[in-house]
Each structure stands twice: as structure tokens, then as C-alpha cells.
Amino acid sequence: MKKFTIVMLILIGVYLALPIFATALYAFSTEWNKTILPEGLTFEWIRTLFQDTRFVEAFGRSVLLSGGAVLLSILFIVPAIFVIVLYFPSFEKWFQASVVMVYAFPGIILSVGLIRFYSGTSLPMILAVLGVYVISVLPYIYQGTRNSLRNVQGRQLMDAAELLGASKIEAFRKVLLPAVYPGLFVAALLSFSVLFGEFVLINLVVGSRFETVQIYLMSKLSTSGHIASAIVFVYIVLMGILTLVMAIVTKKAKGMTRA
Amino acid sequence: MSNVVLKDVHKQYQHTKVLTGIDMNIEDGEFVTLLGPSGCGKSTILRILSGLTDATGGTVMIDGKDMKNTPPKNRKVGMVFQSYALFPNMTVYENVAFGLKMHKKPVNEVAERVGRMLELVGLQEKKGAYPHELSGGQQQRVALARSLVVRPKVLLLDEPLSALDAQIRKHLQVELRTIQRELNMTMILVTHDQEEAMSVSDRIFVMNNGKIAQAGTPSEIYTQPKTEFVANFIGRYNVFSKEQLEKLFGTNIAISAHKYAIRPESIHLQSRVSSYPLRALAGDSVMNGNVIRTTFHAGDKSFTAEQLHHRASAFERGTEYQLFVEPEDVIALS
């Protein structure tokens, strides 16, 4: 039985990893049309990709849009989560309902809604998308922040700091924020990686007027398979780095709160 | 002048009454314990005193000053929490120094006072350690040092030792009392551990259902419980109705009361002139440290008697004994 489980796990692992591995390999292959393995290996496609100013700009836009949305979430949503979780826990159910609503709207419905609502206004559509992004990472930011607050017993830390002479703002800034920082950082990275890979909304609402990595990838799929694979490879490496950073930070955070 | 005064303090959460008519006068340098079962409102009193929770009604005064509208940071009240509440991102030194830095004390003074406080709690060696690198007992000492270093007028201790094992708890109880006497500081301890309350307190307030059931010195509380709740909570008193007791003694009881309490150690084998006699069958005996507790059965009523360990062989299971109780040891309960 144990043997069967191990074999099944290996098969599933191979099934999941094979497309990623093949895509990465294709990004480094000279030719790979009539043979089982690539005819040769090259850095040409990666080099070409990074020499293409369109890609670099698209990459920059993706980072700007995703990073900006995460930053705005941290600035506006996190303080609200702090206040509700620590001082008005009875309101938390409303927050949880909002979190569920984020999942309730499919991208296509959201896009049509955004276009119908904002297209007649002077608001640039990219800002409307940014606004949606800020809200769409709510589940990750909320869970990460709330769990961190509970893990460090946030209310007691605030109480202890206040009794030692700190104002609420000082207690928040000097005690609570550094204590929950690892959890918050992980939530931010997770949100960033989710937004970085978002395609439906940005493509339908803004399209090529604000080309992100995902839109650039879409355009390259029909022109060069090698370049498209190189984009996916770069994307996977970026996500891998983010995951590694999250794992390290989470491990450190666990050590910090272990009593 | 009383250091801490609570006058008719009430607390209500929506439709639930948590505290009803709490009156307390706590003197300067007194070590007072609020003792009661979980949910009786004792921690709420600490939170009201510290300003972390507002009372629904009544007055809280510290050093003669009404604390209404005084924020926690200006009350000069320290608090040690059950879960320690140490700042996880700061070292032991930084934790202890935090309060002094908030009070904008000069760097030299901070270093000097933190050093002295760490010496007092025996943690100089650990000043560079983070909370998660310390044992529970060490963490609680840091929490104590952190609260004491800012020299609060009153130190509130919210079940600070309950998460520790028995040996460390007993050691810290002694240490806490020693520090309190050394600094002559007013301390208010919340606990549900009767032994802890008895061993450290100048006075105990026994609480039940958001009210003070009885207040007094440990000796008064132990020897003169006023109600059945206090008798049961503070010791392992035997509680009898008038009928049960008169049937047991075979005579009328002079003092009229609804219920009576007798301490297990007041039931003995030696007869005196005025003793009440009672016959009972010995049941199981349980050893509890240096004390042997034996259950006796007399008719449908059971009760316990306690003896020091070296006398324990006197009671054999299944044997009927003639026991005695002195009239002054029969306590009338209200």
C-alpha cells in the first residue's frame, strides 16, 4: 500500500512537472521539432527577450501595477483590518463577507461591469483596474494580517505597550507592526504574485494600451514559441524566488512567535 | 491614604452583567489577591483599573485621583499578563527598556535601571536573548521586570503564574512576594489558585458571579468563611445543613444558621470536655503531600477529615470511629 502511494505520488509529480520542465527546456533549445530531446541548447531566446524593450517595459508595467495595488492595499486595508480585529471583532463578519464576495465575481463579469460603469467617466481605465486589484487581494491580505495578529496576540501586545507609556500610534508602529511584519510581508508577496499573473481583467478592460507581461506573452504565443517559453521561464523563476522568500520569512516568523 | 479605591463599580456587556457593585480599598504597599473561579469578573477589575476597559458605572481612584478619562499610559499602572505579552521582535533588554524609552529617559538612566531590574529578576545573562529563546518562567520574569522598571504606583498581575509548572510557580510566588516587599509596591494579583492566594497575599477578595463574596486576610478567609461558596472554594470544607449536623452530633447546635462548615483538620480523635462527638465509618484515604485525607460516611452523609501523615495509620478503611469536633470549629454560614 505504501509502495503504491509512493508510485502514485511520483507519477502525479511527473505529470505536474513535465509541462513546466518542457517549457523551460524549449526556452533554451535551438531546434526542437522532429526529435525527442532538443537538438541543441542556447541562451539566445532569453537574451533576445531581455533585449526587447517591449518586454522590459511590459515587465516594468506589471511590477508597477501589481506592486502599486499591493502597496495601496497595505496602506488602506491593513489599518482597517488591525482596528477591526483588535478592537471591533464583532464587525469581522462583515469583513469576511467582503472577502467571499471577491471570489464570487468571475473576471469576465467584473470586466464588463467595469467597462460599463467607468467608460463614460474621465477616470482612466487603468486606474479602475488598479482599484479592482486593490480589492481583489483582500482575501490574502486579510488572512495574512489576521492570522499574524492572532498568532502574536496583538491586542495584548497593544495593551502592554500602552501601559508602558506608549500612545496607540507608538504601540502600533513600534510593537505591533514589527511583530506582524513577517506575516504581512508574506501576504504582500502572495498578493503580488497573484496580481502579476492576472490576465483576464487587464486584457479585457485595457488590452494593449497598457501592455503587461501576460499580454506580451499572449502576443508572442502566435509569433515565437521559443520567446513565449522564455517569458514563461522568467515568470516561473520570479514566482520561485517569491515562494522561496515567503518560505524563509514564514520559517523565521514561526521561530519568533514560538513560546 | 488608600492607594486604590473602587466605589460601586459596575460592568455590563450588552445584557450580561460582569461586575456588580464592587467596592475595594487597597492600601499603599499592600499585596491583594482577587480570587475566584473563571468568569467571575476578576480580570475585568484589573482591566478597569488599568484603563484598558471602561467601567459601566462607579468610581476608580488611584492615589486619591479619579481615573475617569485618564488613558492607560497616564495611570502609572503596570500589568503582567498570563501570556507574558513580551514583544517578540525585541530582545530581553529592549523589552525591559521599552517603557523607559517611551518615558523619554536618558540613555544612561535606561541602561542603569534596566541592568538593575534584570539583576533583581536574575536575568542579566539573558539580556541579548529574544523571548522565544527563553523558558516560560524566564519569560514571566522579563514581563515582571518590564512592568517594574517604570516604577508603577500599582502593579496588576493577571494570572501571571498559571501557565508555569508547579515547581517554578511556587518559586516565583516566593520571588514575587520578596520583590513586592523590597519595593513596597501595591500589587493586585488575579488567580483561581487558592494556595497561591493564601501564600502571597496580605488580603484576599474572594469573588463569585461578578460580586465580592468575602474580603479579609488569608487567615480570616480560611478560618471564617461567610458563605458556602467561600467555604467550598477556599478550602475543602465539609458543609452541613442544621438537620444533618444535629443528627450527626446527636445534640442541638447552639448557633442558629442555615448551613455550617467544618474544616477537615478540625475533626479529630481526641475528646475534650466541650467536644461534639460523632461516629462514622472510615472510607478511602488519599495522600496529599504531608496530609492524609480520609472520607468518612455517617448515614447518607459523607465528609472528609485530614491528619498529618505520621498519624494516618489511625484510620483503617471499613472501621467505625468515634470522632470529635470542637464547638468553635463549627462555623455558621450565611
Can you characterise this structure?
The complex is a heterodimer of chains A (259) and B (334). Chain A contains twelve helices and no strands. Chain A has 259 residues and is mainly α. The two termini of chain A are 39 Å apart. Helix content of chain B is 28%, strand content 33%. The longest helix of chain B has 18 residues. Chain B starts with a strand and ends with a strand. The interface between A and B is medium-sized, with 24 and 28 residues.
CATH class of chain A: Mainly Alpha
Number of strands of chain B: 17
Main interface by residue count: A-B, 24 and 28 residues
- Give the radius of gyration of chain B: 24 Å
Q: What is the averaged pLDDT score of chain A?
A: 88
Largest sheet of chain A: none
Question: Can you give the mean pLDDT of chain B?
Answer: 89
Predict the CATH topology of chain A: MetI-like fold
- Tally of individual domains of chain A: 1
Helix content of chain A: over 70%
**What is the fourth-level CATH superfamily of chain A?**
MetI-like
CATH architecture annotation name of chain A:
Orthogonal Bundle
Calculate Rg of chain A over CA atoms.
Answer: 22 Å
Strand order of the largest sheet of chain B: 6-7-8-3-9-10
Task: Tell me the name of the CATH homologous superfamily of the largest domain in chain B.
Answer: P-loop containing nucleotide triphosphate hydrolases
Structural class of the helices, strands and pairings of chain B? alpha+beta
Strand content of chain A: under 5%
- Write down the secondary-structure element order of chain A: HHHHHHHHHHHH
Count of helical regions of chain B: 9
Oligomer class: heterodimer
Give me the count of strands of chain A. 0
Keywords:
heterodimer, A: 259 residues, mainly alpha, MetI-like fold, 0% strand, globular, B: 334 residues, alpha+beta, Rossmann fold, OB fold (Dihydrolipoamide Acetyltransferase, E2P), 2 domains, six-stranded mixed beta sheet, four-stranded antiparallel beta sheet, 28% helix, 33% strand
